[in-house]
């Protein structure tokens, strides 16, 4: 009985603090101590340079855990949350449970002081096949209502719920880095355009099927794509228009059009780069990082004058943070920002 109690306490500790297990594994395997703050990158190393510890940290968390059934959530290093769309047997198709869980998860992450940056990826052989049409057919194809007005009202309400699934990513003040491998179809494109930084593998391809399905896009991609790509004509009118022909856009073209920031050779290298970038962001002042995202989104949707006025009002309080003096002191002493202990936000 005594041994059973000890084992139970050990298992409980491992489940609550999984990052300790990964760190201990790295220490034993590599033979060199790895701290939480230096887990993914050392000072001065480019965030695109993958390391063994980064690759291990980017590995799947083993599948969804309650209360989630479509999302696997883990914390591979301090202040970094890894969210993995985890329905590999269904090619990560987006089910009704996914729409609900995304809103619940990102609403929680928005106010979680232990999360400063999110990395989003997909399990299995592709990022996502898009909407699970079989699962949501009754919602969209058979809306309830006694007449046209009531059917339309209920359908509009349902569409707004689906749009919220990706809008909550955009509203989350924590930067979201999305890592795409293989196919990213339909709703997957809507999802990634709501994220802040987009990375992909060389074998990745993107496809918007709204014209092929004889419907207009309603998840938000049609609204966000012009913002992401600067109304790039490759999305609408250029060489083989993406949205109007439902053609495939491959990695190199996605990079040249601005849809993604960087293309990696394979998923392992991409996840290493994504995690190292996340570590760099997590090591900065959360007041500065989250304030930057809030102001960038505000300025995107307002005039220059309105953006400047909003930023002045924002900074009249945020510039009084202790983080400013800590960062300045570290710069004077030629120390890495990751050596500064910023308070949680």
From TrEMBL:
Q: What is the lineage of its organism?
A: Eukaryota, Metazoa, Chordata, Craniata, Vertebrata
Function summary: Isomerization of 3-trans,5-cis-dienoyl-CoA to 2-trans,4-trans-dienoyl-CoA.
Sorted alphabetically, the Gene Ontology BP terms of this entry are: fatty acid beta-oxidation
Full protein name: Delta(3,5)-Delta(2,4)-dienoyl-CoA isomerase, mitochondrial
Q: Which family does it belong to?
A: Belongs to the enoyl-CoA hydratase/isomerase family.
The species this protein was found in: Takifugu rubripes (Japanese pufferfish)
The GO cellular component terms are: mitochondrion; peroxisome
Q: Which reaction does it catalyse?
A: (3E,5Z)-octadienoyl-CoA = (2E,4E)-octadienoyl-CoA; (3E,5Z,8Z,11Z,14Z)-eicosapentaenoyl-CoA = (2E,4E,8Z,11Z,14Z)-eicosapentaenoyl-CoA
User: Which one of the record's GO molecular function terms can you name?
Assistant: delta(3,5)-delta(2,4)-dienoyl-CoA isomerase activity
Instruction: Give me the gene this protein comes from.
Output: ech1
